[in-house]
Specification:
Chain lengths: ~250, ~475
């Protein structure tokens, strides 16, 4: 479904990603781990098509098409979703209204009929309930005045409503208490299916106890320095990132 | 950072004006230039009584001694007042006994603008007065209004039919010497609307005037007077458009509102004069004086404006809160795109006790647009317990535009409570990316963010027009592509 080859990218004239290779098949969950500043969010933003990040080399193929040719909104309408590490506030824009515009833009692209207000509200209320979100969050402005945890939950809520094919979750676990983490993980697990793939970015292996990955990759200084199965995350937890960094340095030598 | 988003902001700044056509209709235009003879000519053409001509002449003489204001935060080419024609009217001015008398070309113009004059086709509850260049060409629903004792007609007609009312209130809020442009208007005003709602009457429908400049080389100087007697209520809306022309045209209107005890006047404007092209060529100079007096106790005046057009806007709809417990409100959205400039705001003058005022100003700047909020809150010595709340928010789209805020306070009573909040935000790349990541296209995202920003003002507009205003706003910010 997703094939990244030799990807290099820069922001503000500084190269951050130095050659990433990653293949994600439909139905799989890949975890990307790594210390702060290693380029995890950069990778997520490049996948989502942030215009401030310039791809300087390599290719990204999604469902057989060149993802880099598409603008961010086109990618989203083709089923690529990113849950933000720091969700953005949009004052004055009602959360439900925003999501309705998003969902209908996507449905239009897929040749589906737009949902009317009633069907839409039935859908979002159901999803909100599953994520144990208060209904009032639907009527508040997008992320405005939301607590850190509410913002993260809202990201997963957007994902649940939009039903993407490829979801990139950027540190969705940070800022969540254990109960919220469980609810959010259940939301993600409910969406797991043979047609859908996830790239789960996290700093801690704790999240991976709830969302069990098929593959784990360790990112360090803009490179994937190690890939493995679920056990790699546990090993990391034991030995800390220092171990990987020296290993990464070793691998480059 | 020169990125794709910046590019989109620049594209958005290239706007498309959809009302720029010219109507081909025979017109009577007086030669350019201004002197006492021109003032007399206008008055004669309108068959005015002697007192009104005298008033015009006094205004003209005062104007000659005045100088054009320069304190506003806008720049424009000097206006040559002798190079303007001060009167233009469709020829064979119809005797307006029936709508059928309206010139079919003019009728088509208003239809093109979405203002059908046939009463049955109208939005259920809106009466329209249509002003084409200097002359009012049609007023709808007059009979129904007359039954309630409400007068809604062109200014000229009011002078003919209700001279005593006009004489009583004309210039009582904006004197003929008030300021340079108001004095000019008093000397040469051509037409406009007149509304009178008698004691205890609640006007059963929205009243609306639609102004259209069509002729070339002319100015438009209309004058509106609205009087609501004790306990009366009226909601009034004005709209305006003009053809696209390379020249700048002057529009210097005056609006006076008088609210007696317990009366309420809601005055809403959707201003969409031609803004000029993207390089700043052409467009209307919109130099307007609007003021209302809450003359009686517990009266209320609300100004709501959505200003998207004009090359240069200079306008401060104000309230004189004379009656005790009277209320003044000002809700404004002003958009400047490309090279448009707006210097707009309000004055709230608290004279009576327990008077309250609210100011909500939303300035949106895009392209190279410059948007200035200028507002004054004055509390007189006798105005015990006056309250004011002001909120001025600016939204920047792109990084070549500007927003400026000049709040003035003059408080002479220590019991006054005055609050001022201001914010400036930018539609940031992060917000745009967030919308994009959910599948929302750039222009839709900007419209959504802008509408969210203007929400508090739009909800003050009559329902029928809130939708129009929203559309207008998105057109103003629309790119030339698509
Ligand atoms: N918009 C940006 N401007 C400047 N530097 C950036 C920007 N985004 C990321 N970086 C830099 O790129 C590096 C990787 O950051 P990031 O991808 O956020 O790491 P992670 O998510 O793994 O913590 C850091 O050095 C960071 O400072
Ligand atoms: Mg990060």
């Amino acid at each position: 479904m997703l094939e990244i080859k030799g990807l290099t990218a820069k922001v503000e004239e500084k190269e951050i990603l130095h050659g990433i290779d990653l293949t994600v098949n439909a139905g799989e969950v890949h975890a990307i781990m790594g210390p702060n500043g290693s380029g995890k969010s950069t990778l997520a933003r490049v996948l989502a098509g942030h215009p401030g990040y310039e791809v300087t080399g390599g290719t990204i193929t999604y469902d057989g098409q060149d993802l880099l040719e598409l603008a961010a909104d086109e990618r989203a309408r083709k089923g690529v979703f990113m849950a933000f590490q720091y969700p953005v506030e949009i004052p004055g824009v009602n959360n439900a209204y925003f999501l309705k515009a998003a969902l209908n833009a996507t449905r239009k692209e897929q040749g589906l009929e737009e949902l009317d207000a009633i069907d839409f509200m039935t859908l979002v209320k159901g999803e909100a309930k599953r994520l144990q979100m208060d209904d009032s969050m639907l009527q508040r402005s997008v992320n405005e005045g939301f607590s850190g945890g509410e913002k993260k939950r809202n990201e997963i809520f957007h994902m649940a409503v939009l039903q993407p094919r490829l979801a990139v979750l950027d540190e969705t676990d940070s800022g969540l208490d254990i109960d919220a983490l469980r609810v959010v993980s259940e939301g993600v697990n409910a969406l797991r299916s043979p047609e859908r793939a996830f790239v789960v970015v996290t700093h801690y292996q704790r999240l991976l106890e709830y969302i069990v990955p098929d593959h784990v990759h360790v990112l360090s200084e803009g490179r994937i320095v190690r890939s493995g199965g679920r056990e790699l995350a546990l090993e990391l937890e034991d030995k800390g990132y220092g171990w990987i960094e020296s290993a990464g340095a070793g691998a480059r030598r | 950072m020169e990125t794709a988003t910046t590019k989109v902001f620049e594209d958005l700044a290239a706007q498309d004006y959809k009302y720029g056509f010219v109507t081909d209709v025979e017109q009577e235009i007086v030669p350019k230039g201004l002197d006492e003879d021109v003032v007399r000519l206008i008055s004669t053409k309108k068959g005015e009584p002697g007192w009104l001509l005298e008033w015009r002449l006094k205004a003209f003489r005062a104007w000659q001694k005045m100088t054009e204001p320069t304190w506003q935060n806008v720049t424009y080419n000097a206006i040559d007042y002798q190079d303007i024609s001060y009167y233009a009217a469709p020829k064979e001015k119809p005797k307006l006994n029936s709508l059928d008398d309206v010139d079919p070309e003019i009728r088509r113009t208003f239809e093109k603008l979405g203002i059908p004059l046939e009463e049955q086709k109208l939005l259920a509850n809106v009466a329209v007065d249509a002003v084409f260049d200097s002359v009012s060409v049609a007023t709808t629903f007059r009979d129904k209004l007359a039954k309630a004792g409400i007068i809604f007609c062109s200014f000229s007609e009011a002078v003919r039919e209700h001279p005593e009312l006009v004489r009583q209130y004309l210039g009582s809020v904006v004197p003929h010497t008030d300021n340079f442009f108001a004095a000019l208007n008093a000397a040469v005003f051509s037409d406009g609307s007149f509304v009178f709602v008698p004691k205890g009457v609640r006007c059963p429908m929205e009243l609306s005037t639609y102004f259209r400049i069509n002729a070339k080389g002319t100015g438009q100087f209309e004058r509106t007077l609205i009087v609501a007697e004790e306990g009366a209520y009226v909601s009034y809306l004005e709209g305006c458009t003009a053809p696209m022309r390379d020249e700048n045209q002057l529009h210097a209107a005056v609006v006076e509102l008088v609210a007696l005890e317990g009366a309420t006047i809601k005055y809403s404007t959707v201003q969409n004069w031609y803004p000029g092209d993207k390089d700043g060529k052409g467009g209307i100079y919109n130099f307007v004086t609007k003021r209302g007096t809450c003359r009686g106790a517990r009266s209320k005046i609300t100004w709501t404006q959505v200003e998207t057009g004009s090359a240069v806007t200079w306008k401060y709809p104000s309230c004189i809160l004379q009656g005790d417990d009277s209320v003044g409100e000002f809700y404004s959205v002003a958009v400047t795109n490309n090279r448009q400039q707006a210097d707009t705001g309000t004055k709230m003058i608290h004279l009576g006790k327990n008077t309250r005022s609210t100011i909500v100003s939303k300035g949106i700047s895009a392209g190279l647009g410059q948007n200035t909020y200028r507002g004054a809150v004055k509390v007189a010595k006798g105005a015990a317990n006056a309250r004011n709340y002001s909120q001025c928010d600016s939204l920047l789209i792109g990084d070549k535009c500007g927003a400026h805020t000049f709040p003035y306070l003059e408080i002479k009573n220590t019991s006054a409570k005055v609050e001022h909040e201001a914010s400036t935000s930018k539609i940031g790349e992060d917000q745009m990316f967030y919308c994009a990541s959910r599948g929302i296209a750039m222009e839709d995202a900007i419209n959504m963010i802008v509408s969210g920003f203007c929400k508090e003002v739009f909800r003050e507009l009559p329902m029928e027009f809130a939708v129009e205003a929203q559309k207008l706003l998105s057109v103003s910010l629309e790119g030339s592509v698509g």
